[in-house]
Amino acid sequence: MEEMAKITIGDETFELPVIVGTEGERAIDIQSLRKRTGLITYDPGFNNTGSCKSAITFMDGENGVLRYRGIPVEQLAEKSTFVETAYLLINGRLPEQKELTRFSVLLNDHSMVHEDMRTFFENFPRGAHPMGILSAMVNALRFFYPQLEGLSETEELDIIVTRLISKVRTMAAMSYKISLGHKVVYPKPDLCYCANFLNMMFDSPVKPYNLDPDFIRALNVLWILHGDHEQNCSTSAVRLVGSARVNLYASISAGISALWGRLHGGANQAVIRMMEEIHAAGGDVKPFVARARDKNDNFRLMGFGHSVYKTYDPRAKIIKKMADTVQAKLDKSDPLLDIARELEEVALKDPYFIDHNLYPNVDFYSGIVMRAMGIPTEMFTVMFAIGRLPGWIAQWKECFDSPRWKLSRPRQIYIGNNVRDYTPIEARTKTML
């Protein structure tokens, strides 16, 4: 028998069905609420509103659980590659060997970008943020690569998906090279996805880049950990914009713009800036921890706490180990890693941080890993976007495949003026005088 929830308004009681997910999550289905009662729900930020049913990612913030298509992210980080995980997210299952090989070949085949796009890159104002450039360029891809005649809708979508995953990586590396005034390095067909990116970023005629297996593995893990994260701000943006039935390029462009925000993808840059500030002040973390506890001080420790996780972010545990691995490859240790370790140790013992569930999140150590690989701070959020791209595509595709995909149209509670007459400008001027 279906479980029902009861809501009483005045003298009337209404029953609404309760939906139960595969992991026991429960929600009240309010789709008929306005029609039956004339009321809507009020939930600023939608923190208590389920916008969809999804079979892609499961999160349990209370217990620090994250799974892609049912597989724990810890297992994927240890055993999988980013390309295999991307296939899993988009297609709902792990690929067979021939499917993985075909997917990898397609990514290499579509990795080149139209030469005319270089003109776009070179004409952005100097100092333009890479995320703004990437968002614009992804939207422009639609016009450089129009629909292919004779293909079914599914075949066309498969090509668009591989085109996006392969070209966004190439465009990111290209924008970095152009920003330095260096010659663009093109992708090599004999290199895997992550190795190709590192080579395009750092290879040069003067100093050939040495592809370190540990760095390649670290990049795989970093991007796997960022693959998807349920209905966060940027994913919701992709779904909402896509609900208007715009093309996938435009939806992904919207996701990139949302990720750009300092409360979302930009947090990893903020962590590095905070650690640099602590280092410049002598490296003692205790005064900064005290400031974070002071409710009258606007300072906050970046990289601690999460809107969903109420315990240690499972991704942070994995990326912390990877930080140690890549740091061991460097000629000298990074003082910011020492500060990060001390900050974590102090915060995890501090009652204030424990009581407020302020545990390290993935942003806390991801910046250290990217910094060790030589990736500049302004590229951190772009790296996040490359990792999140398969998740965005999977979320958009899940909507696209659903016959019940509705146009998103949130409601509001109006608190403005009641009806009033138009005042002619002469009267308005006299009133002002």
From TrEMBL:
Family statement: Belongs to the citrate synthase family.
One Pfam family of this chain: Citrate_synt
Any one biological process term the GO annotation gives: tricarboxylic acid cycle
Annotated source species: Desulfatibacillum aliphaticivorans
GO CC annotation terms, alphabetical: cytoplasm
Reaction(s) catalysed (UniProt annotation): oxaloacetate + acetyl-CoA + H2O = citrate + CoA + H(+)
Record keywords, A-Z: Acyltransferase, Transferase, Tricarboxylic acid cycle
Known pathway: Carbohydrate metabolism; tricarboxylic acid cycle; isocitrate from oxaloacetate: step 1/2
Active site per database record: H306, D363
PANTHER family listed in its UniProt record: CITRATE SYNTHASE
Protein name, entry field: Citrate synthase
MF-aspect GO terms: citrate synthase activity
